[in-house]
Design brief:
Length: 313
Amino acid sequence: MNTVYDLSQVDKCGYTIINGESLEVLRNLPSNLVQVCITSPPYFWQRDYGDVNQIGMEKTPGKYIRNLMSIFDEVWRVLKDDGTLYVNIDDIYKHGKVPGKVPIKSYIGILPMFELAMLRKRWIFRNRIIWHKKNGLPESVKDRFVKRHEPFYMFVKQRYYMHNPQYQRAASIPSIRERTHHKYSDIKRPAKTSCQSIQGVGEQKSIWTTDNNGNPLSRMGDVISAAIGTDKHASTHMAPFPQSIINTLIDASSRPGDIILDCFCGSGTTGIVALERERRFIGIELVEQSYTLANQNCSDKVGLFNTNPRKGT
Ligand SMILES: C[S@@+](CC[C@H](N)C(=O)[O-])C[C@H]1O[C@@H](n2cnc3c(N)ncnc32)[C@H](O)[C@@H]1O
């Protein structure tokens, strides 16, 4: 169905949430529109969102991955050439009725399938960022290690793309001896300037700098610790992002005014953070209750409520 969505709300209010099925909505959005897509599709057989058009309850893992690839093909089209896609997705253990040709108790293998499928689709696979869950849920299982992480995948479309390196407080600065050792040969003395934002292309020569108080900073690594379930906005959604991780991803990959997309927007965490950081936001959400929650959360940020209800209903 060809539907034209009213994107004027993105200019007027800073955001729009569209109530609909991700693939169908994306097909009706213009190309080269968004700078960053940050999203988390429903995990395979993790949760039943109770809608026939939901992603995640497919009969086989292969069908799930194919459905995701159709969606990320459209994300490729709506993403600017120098844009970035972040995907939070995870595996599931084979048990009960969960489909998958692996032994009971084994991971089904969703992550390797997803990674290979994205590579076959010409995405450039830049990072597998680990979200370390500071306060992971207790698990009753006693014959393996307790799970404490989820990945956020970072993909880009081309070799050169927009990126602001992110910094964090460094534990300590290596001594001169350590710095002259081959491993640290390109480390300079900390700069007197504050942490600079470098937009665009190329490797940064120095990996040490300081904040305004002279504290040493180092480039952020690909493990980010964040607690789950502590952000107030998502108390009624089952699987919200932690806002602190989304802050980092948005700062790294966009500038104020850019459009950020979340094509499975749930409670609207990506939108809340985007609006707080003076970006604009487009969210897509299938389930009406979550759509209303995301709208409410985004409107609380800008003081304006707007709607883009499901077409044909
Ligand atoms: C893992 S949750 C996203 C949570 C979100 N990151 C947050 O911070 O609240 C996935 C969401 O995708 C929605 N969803 C499932 N199938 C969909 C589809 N085909 N199109 C759009 N949204 C869908 C679900 O209703 C659910 O809210």
